């Protein structure tokens, strides 16, 4: 500022404030009060204190029963699926997606989910809206068996529009070192078991939104006969949470690995748990993907390989087990209401093969 342009100062009582900058502290406090009831529902015996402190506390003495406890951690969000929630004005399901993305990653290594924290970023705090998001996160934590020990709601006026928001979360779990699951356990002849997804889950929505809305001109309130409901209802279907199902299997039968089918699709995620020298072969003919996958492919004329490297194609989680444990696994999943089937096997790796491959065609 030049000397010829002095800085003017406001008169008494006319100064700027946090509220005038767009941040409503009282609305944030109101949101915390509304969410406390839902957070309490996730409480585990190891949680110390309540909501409102600077940090969530978890009594680590509970880990003394482990010989060599390994802590597993993960962090994630739900991507552009939040845009569907915003456009529909439905905020109490997106939290299920967040918990699934975080805690199912933790369960993959055989770890028991312990606790989670969330981060909700909004353009403007609408207390009831924030509380609805936390309600969904809390419900998801109950389904995953973990506690929601804290979080943060940040108001970013000017960076986000008044109705814009995003969510992220971080979680921690624990597994006994000698029960850690992963590539080292996998052997030739192991069975690959697929667990059905509840739909698109929380990956690939940038492609889905581009295809269905920008190219196809479809609307969220449009009923689609193939789906049996509106497009919005289908796209907002919560991600299935497999954590407790995976842990139940690991406690009941021998399990070598799990693979959470998220961004990158089935083959790429399964390859992450297949060791060098071995190959996972998955037969497409063992299942038919849901109608939403076919709809995205047809409307956008998306090639199958592009769909398969972007979307889960009807499989949300996979387990690799010894062949003799396969029937036990299928029975356990059936008892727990999880649609599962033997989708493939582990074989010796050929010279030009990748870690995992899809073969055959889906049934019509």
TrEMBL record:
BP-aspect Gene Ontology terms: 'de novo' IMP biosynthetic process; adenine biosynthetic process
Region called Disordered, residue ranges: 1-20
MF-aspect GO terms: ATP binding; phosphoribosylamine-glycine ligase activity; phosphoribosylformylglycinamidine cyclo-ligase activity
Pfam families: AIRS (PF00586), AIRS_C (PF02769)
GO cellular component: cytosol
E.C. no: 6.3.3.1
UniProt keywords, alphabetically: ATP-binding, Cytoplasm, Ligase, Nucleotide-binding, Purine biosynthesis
Occurrences of domain PurM-like N-terminal (ranges): 67-175
Catalytic reaction annotation: 2-formamido-N(1)-(5-O-phospho-beta-D-ribosyl)acetamidine + ATP = 5-amino-1-(5-phospho-beta-D-ribosyl)imidazole + ADP + phosphate + H(+)
Family: Belongs to the AIR synthase family.
Protein name, per record: Phosphoribosylformylglycinamidine cyclo-ligase
The organism of origin for this protein: Streptomyces uncialis
Gene this chain is encoded by: purM
């Amino acid at each position: 500022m030049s000397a010829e342009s002095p800085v003017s100062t406001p008169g008494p009582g006319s100064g700027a404030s946090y509220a005038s900058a767009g941040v409503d502290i009282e609305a944030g406090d109101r949101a915390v009060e509304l969410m406390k009831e839902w957070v309490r529902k996730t409480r585990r015996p190891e949680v110390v204190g309540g909501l409102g402190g600077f940090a969530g506390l978890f009594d680590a003495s509970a880990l003394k029963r482990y010989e060599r406890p390994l802590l597993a951690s993960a962090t994630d969000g739900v991507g552009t699926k939040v845009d569907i929630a915003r456009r529909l004005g439905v905020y109490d399901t997106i939290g299920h997606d967040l918990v699934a993305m975080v805690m199912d990653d933790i369960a993959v290594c055989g770890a028991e989910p312990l606790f989670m924290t969330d981060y909700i970023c909004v353009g403007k705090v609408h207390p009831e809206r924030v509380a609805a998001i936390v309600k969904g996160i809390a419900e998801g934590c109950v389904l995953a068996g973990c506690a929601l020990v804290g979080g943060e709601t940040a108001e970013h006026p000017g960076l986000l529009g008044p109705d814009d928001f995003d969510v992220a979360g971080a979680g921690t779990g624990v597994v006994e070192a000698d029960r850690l699951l992963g590539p080292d356990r996998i052997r030739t002849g192991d069975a690959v078991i697929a667990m059905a997804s509840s739909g698109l889950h929380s990956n690939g929505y940038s492609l889905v939104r581009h295809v269905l809305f920008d190219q196809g001109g479809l609307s969220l309130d449009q009923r689609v006969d193939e789906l049996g409901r509106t497009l919005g209802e289908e796209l907002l279907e919560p991600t299935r949470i497999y954590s407790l199902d995976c842990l139940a299997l690991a406690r009941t039968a021998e399990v070598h690995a799990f693979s959470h089918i998220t961004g990158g699709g089935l083959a790429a995620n399964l390859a992450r748990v297949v060791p060098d020298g071995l190959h996972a072969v998955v037969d497409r003919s063992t299942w038919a993907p849901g109608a939403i996958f076919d709809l995205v492919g047809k409307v956008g004329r998306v090639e199958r390989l592009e769909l398969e490297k972007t979307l889960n194609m009807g499989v949300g989680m996979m387990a690799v087990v010894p062949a003799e444990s396969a029937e036990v696994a299928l029975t356990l999943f059936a008892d727990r209401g999880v649609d599962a089937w033997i989708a493939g096997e582990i074989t010796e790796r050929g010279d030009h093969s990748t870690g995992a491959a899809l073969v055959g065609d889906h049934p019509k």
